[in-house]
Design goal:
The chain is α/β, with parallel strands linked by helices and 405 residues long. The protein contains 15 helices and 14 strands. GO terms for molecular function: cyclic-guanylate-specific phosphodiesterase activity.
């Protein structure tokens, strides 16, 4: 398979050097240009698998190029190569990812042949699609459609496995919503979740995901597997003072066990009054549920909340995980976060693990569990059961497959 790569570099020597490095790899076709306008024009008329861009350039710089690239209808994946500081490149990565670009690497000059090999390996790890129709063709659902989907079970839970870095086996799962749309097929949350939030249906979705997770756990238990499940909980819902009581009543009525369920407090919202956040967190733990800080290292999550909230688990955001094996700053940050979490007695889960090198680094640093496309994408309940069967070492080990650090 031929991969098309575009290199944007203003210095002739560096441009030629990069062209030679990439061209020496089998199946790689390389184009190169020296300014932003030319690069954007090439991207508009040619589909590239990867764009490698400098940051420090006269005239329009690499940041402006990334902004322009993100405006393309189907932008290629991106790698940043620069003599700028690592923190500046990390900021460029965060900016690019916030615009929806897939950043596969940050390369410091001078670039080595091994850097190019690692970049092409990362490029080969494409993310599988979970929708059957392009988002641009998916009409935004209204409140009536969403309520109907919640009522008839079309909005359902798929499960992404969490693997133990100690045993190498699946020890837990995260419930992620999918819509089995009657006309459009299986839709990922990006095509309907924003509308659901705008219509104030997050509480109803939380109940549906909890029920679906308990039902899946019952099926897995009948096959001999105990699988704890994590469920996303937007923190602003904790403003409802009786939410912990509601969730416990629903869990018990459905035949679930609070000890096998963990609510992940998402980082994209918070309560208007901080007292509601801490009251809700304490009461969920007092009911016996697990509690996780989701997306730690991103958005509103903080060390203060991590230390002062009765969490049982911390999930490290992919922004701190992706590239940690090659990025000294990320590696140092993870070292500190994992050491703190271990001192707090938390289960440590790394999200967005997509390379063997990052997996090895996380294992060496003492991370407990990982999830991401390197392990598995989210799966329907029946497919998750088959994964458990394949993962089980023997029949006798099934009944004890509880989450472990």
């Amino acid at each position: 398979m031929t991969r098309r790569v575009l290199i944007l570099e203003d210095q002739p020597f560096q441009r030629g050097y990069l062209v030679n490095l990439f061209s020496a790899r089998a199946g790689v076709q390389v184009d190169a240009c020296e300014d932003v306008d030319a690069a954007i024009a090439l991207c508009a008329c040619q589909a590239y698998d990867l764009v490698v861009s400098d940051l420090l350039m006269p005239g329009q710089d690499g940041i402006q190029f990334i902004q322009a690239l993100a405006a393309q209808p189907r932008p290629p994946r991106l790698a940043v190569v620069s003599a700028a500081s690592r923190r500046m490149m990390s900021s460029a990565r965060l900016m690019a990812e916030s615009l929806g670009l897939d950043v596969v690497g940050l390369l410091a000059k001078p670039v080595a042949a091994s850097d190019v090999d690692a970049l092409l390996d990362a490029l080969a790890q494409t993310r599988p699609a979970v929708r059957t129709s392009p988002a641009a063709l998916t009409p935004e659902p209204d409140a009536v459609q969403l309520r109907q989907a919640l009522a008839d079970g079309s909005l359902t839970a798929w499960f992404q496995p969490k693997k133990s870095l100690q045993s190498g086996r699946v020890v837990a799962a995260e419930a992620l919503v999918r819509w089995r749309h009657p006309q459009l097929g299986t839709l990922a949350p990006g095509s309907f979740l924003p509308a659901l939030c705008r219509h104030g249906l997050e509480g109803e979705l939380l109940h549906a995901m909890l029920t679906a997770s308990i039902q899946a756990q019952a099926r897995w238990r009948s096959q001999g597997f105990r699988v704890p499940v994590s469920i996303n909980l937007p923190p602003h819902l904790l403003e409802q003072s009786d939410l912990p009581d509601e969730l416990l009543a629903l869990t018990l009525a459905a035949g679930g066990n609070p000890a096998d369920l963990c609510f992940e407090l998402m980082e994209n919202s918070t309560t208007r009054h901080v007292s509601d956040f801490y009251a809700g967190a304490c009461r969920l733990r007092m009911k016996g549920f697990g509690l996780a800080q989701d997306d730690f290292g991103q958005g509103l999550s903080s060390v203060h909340n991590l230390v002062n909230t009765p969490f049982t688990e911390v999930k490290i955001d992919r922004a701190l995980v992706s590239g940690c094996a090659r990025d000294p700053a990320l590696h140092l940050t993870l070292t500190t976060v994992i050491a703190l979490a271990n001192q707090l007695g938390l289960t440590i889960v790394a999200e967005g693990v997509e390379s063997d090198a990052d997996l090895a680094a996380l294992r060496q640093l003492g991370c407990n569990q990982v999830q991401g496309f390197l392990v598995s994408q989210a799966l329907p309940s029946d497919d998750f059961t088959r994964l458990l069967d394949e993962d089980a070492p023997d029949e006798g080990a099934r009944g004890s497959r509880a989450a472990s650090r």
